Structure formats: C-alpha cells, structure tokens
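Researcher: I'd like a candidate sequence for this fold, 362 residues long. If you have to choose between options at a position, lean toward the conservative one.
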C-alpha cells in the first residue's frame, strides 16, 4: 500500500530543501557534526525528508523533486570523490552522508531497474565466452549503441560549439580513474589484474603528462569550457549519468552491475570518440585538445576486449548468476546514455548557429 510521504515531512528542512540542509551541515564544526551523528531523531527526520523527496520525484513524477534528488547526490558524490583538506580531518560527515545516499541511490536505481524489461536480462548463456557474444549483441541491438549524435550529427553537421557541449562528459571522465580504483577492491584474481591494468593506463603508465584526467582538462581548455561554462550548461541527464556511475563504483554490492555498466562504457567509447576526433580535425582545432579522445580510440578498444575476456567472461563462467547483474548494469548504461545523448542532440539541433570567429571571442 502506497504511503504519501509528503504528509510526514518535517518543517526542519523546509528552508531550501535537502541540498541546503546538507550544505549547512557541511559548514559544521567537528563537534557539531559529532552531535548531529548521535542525534538519531534528527537523522530519522532527515531520512524522512529523503523518502518524501524521492516519492515526489519517482512516484508522483515531479521533475523538480527528481532534480533535487540528483543535486543532493551530486553534492555527496563530490565529497566521496574529493581529496580531504587537512583542516577537515576531524570532521566526520560520513554517517549523515551515507544515510542520505543510501535512500536516494536506492530510489534512483529502483527507477532505472524498473525501465528494464525482464526478458532483456534473462535467457543468457552460462559460459563466459558465449555470454560475452550475447552481451555484445545487446550493444548492437540498443539504440544507444549507434546513437545518431555520433553516427550522423557530428560527421554531417557538427560544429565547433557542439564539441564544446560534449564537455557534459565531466560527469564521468574526470573521475574514471577513481572508479577503477574503487572497483579493484571487489575484484579478485585475473579480473582484479585487468582492472588494475586499466587503472594504470588512466595514470598515463606513470607519465604525469599522460595522466588521462590531465589530458581531459586539456580538451576542456582547448574548447574554452571553463568551470563556469560546464556548470551553466550541464544537463540533468548528464548529472543522472554521473550519479549512477559514482554510486555503482562506491558500493561493493553493486560490483557486478558496475562490471556491465563500465564494460559497455569502454566498448562504446572508441566508436564515439572517433567521431569526435574527426569533427575536431575538420574544424582545424588545436591538436593538443584532442589527445584525450584520440588516445582512447585505441586504448579503450584494448580495454573493452580485456574487460570482456578477463572480467565478464570469468565471472559468468564462475557463477552464472552474475550474468543477470552484469546485464542489468549494461542496460542501465544503455538507457541513461540514450537519455543523455537524446537530450544533448536536441540541444545541439536547436542551438542558434554561429560562426567560429564569433564563438572564439564569446
């Protein structure tokens, strides 16, 4: 029986909502945070605010409430994936953040799982090699596998500003090395070694100039995508993708879903990035800015092959039950990627066309 969570919401969080409450807590002293962590009445009220917000967003279809869910999650994930400042070493914020994250992430993933047809993740082979072929066929069958943004728009009519809009990828690419590091905790044997090799590539194989996050920053700089531009243009669909990527890697119980999710990410990257590189060079932009994408055409081809052979295949052969979880993760990636690319392509197509000179001085 459905309970209307809105009737139980507390006025304690009325001022600015959940995100504002988290930001206020983030300014608390170590002593204040310790008191809050031990105030279970407060934490219960905070949990009820989360339930009310997710009910409005995902049961009632309130898009603003859903946006607030993801804004709060993005705030939490920024904490989770950021280095701690030395003056914050005594501030224990995690108990409260984990309370909130568990409720919000649960609602988000339940929604994504509800979008997947049962038949899409059943009837798969129980041998690793056959499963890999089955999973690759899923890529070919899903619209996100060959999205028109990459297959048609960029090659045929993509402009300089369209490449700038692709900085939406800041929701995933800059923290992919940390995601791989987190996934290594749950992996074993050969799968752990494969993820480690992938991580070492992200680290530029020990060359600081070739660390992938640094190369991505060069791409942003080359198209004039500073922090303000990224903040002002970031779409809700990109934030959703970033939050799901973050939460799948952070929780060990989602490891098998993460294997499918990021395996598909690696598999799709080369074909997509090739289109980006072609469009970049067609507009004769600075080559230093395309090193990141150009490098990943070859690197991710190898990563995808290794991921399927040394991670996906052995997991399914070892325990066929993991095949369903891996397929669920892959489908979540397909669906959220399609949402994001559909929205991004719509923005590209409706954007007023300007010449390169005008853009360069804007």
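Model: Candidate sequence:
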């Amino acid at each position: 029986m459905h309970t209307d969570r809105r009737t139980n919401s507390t006025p304690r969080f009325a001022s600015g909502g959940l995100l504002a409450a988290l930001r206020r807590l983030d300014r608390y002293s170590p002593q204040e945070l310790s008191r809050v962590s031990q105030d279970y009445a407060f934490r219960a009220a905070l949990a009820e605010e989360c339930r009310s917000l997710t009910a409005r967003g995902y049961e009632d279809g309130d898009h603003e409430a859903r946006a607030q869910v993801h804004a709060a999650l993005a705030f939490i994930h920024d904490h989770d994936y950021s280095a701690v400042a030395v003056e914050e070493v005594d501030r224990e914020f995690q108990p409260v953040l984990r309370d909130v994250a568990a409720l919000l992430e649960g609602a988000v993933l339940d929604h994504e799982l509800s979008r997947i047809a049962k038949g899409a993740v059943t009837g798969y082979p129980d041998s690793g090699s056959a499963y890999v072929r089955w999973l690759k066929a899923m890529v070919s069958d899903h619209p996100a596998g060959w999205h028109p943004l990459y297959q048609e728009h960029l090659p045929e009519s993509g402009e300089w500003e369209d490449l700038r809009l692709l900085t939406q990828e800041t929701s995933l690419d800059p923290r992919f090395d940390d995601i791989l590091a987190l996934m290594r905790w749950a992996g074993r044997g050969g799968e752990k070694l494969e993820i480690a090799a992938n991580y070492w590539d992200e680290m530029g194989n020990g060359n600081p100039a070739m660390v992938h996050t640094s190369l991505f920053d060069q791409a942003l700089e080359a198209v004039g995508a500073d922090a303000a531009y990224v903040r002002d243009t970031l779409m809700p669909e990109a934030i959703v993708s970033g939050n799901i990527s973050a939460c799948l890697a952070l929780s060990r119980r989602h490891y098998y879903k993460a294997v499918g999710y990021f395996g598909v990410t690696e598999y799709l990257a080369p074909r997509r990035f090739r289109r980006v590189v072609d469009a970049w060079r067609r507009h004769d932009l600075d080559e230093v800015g395309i090193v990141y994408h150009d490098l990943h055409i070859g690197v991710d081809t190898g990563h995808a092959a290794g991921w399927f052979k040394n991670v996906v295949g052995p997991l399914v052969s070892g325990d066929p039950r993991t095949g369903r979880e891996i397929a669920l993760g892959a489908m979540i990636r397909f669906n959220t990627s399609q949402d994001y690319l559909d929205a991004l392509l719509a923005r590209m197509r409706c954007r007023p066309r300007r010449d390169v000179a005008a853009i360069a001085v804007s």
